[in-house]
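Dear colleague,

Thank you for sharing your sequence with our group. We've completed the structure prediction you requested, and as agreed, I am returning the results in plain text so they can be pasted directly into your records. Please verify that the sequence below matches your submission; if there's any discrepancy, let me know and we will rerun it promptly.
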Amino acid sequence: MATIHASCETCGDVELTTAYVRVRVCINDNRGEYSFRCPECEMTVVKAAEPRTIDLLVASGVAMDTWSLPAELDETKIGRPISHDDLLEFHNKLHDSSSWNEALAHLLEG
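Please find the predicted structure tokens below.
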């Protein structure tokens, strides 16, 4: 197993084996990151990584996961953006069950 040198924000430079490092790559835009649990403080550390770094880690035996951006990002947005007042009104309706039920019934009728 290869030894990987990384840095923890708390502990500084640490040495890891490939078994303690994971790579994640977005299949839509090739953004990559690697993560590991610091062997000293046991905090999970996540760092962005360039494609060259990802390639070196994977070639060293680090496991790679892929993920994709949510499809909702490609949907056409219609209507005005939600405002702080909209969120406050929604919050208040959730806490007033009669108001919430009436609003929901009105939407279903409509």
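Summary note from our side: The chain has a mean pLDDT of 90.

Kind regards,
the structure core
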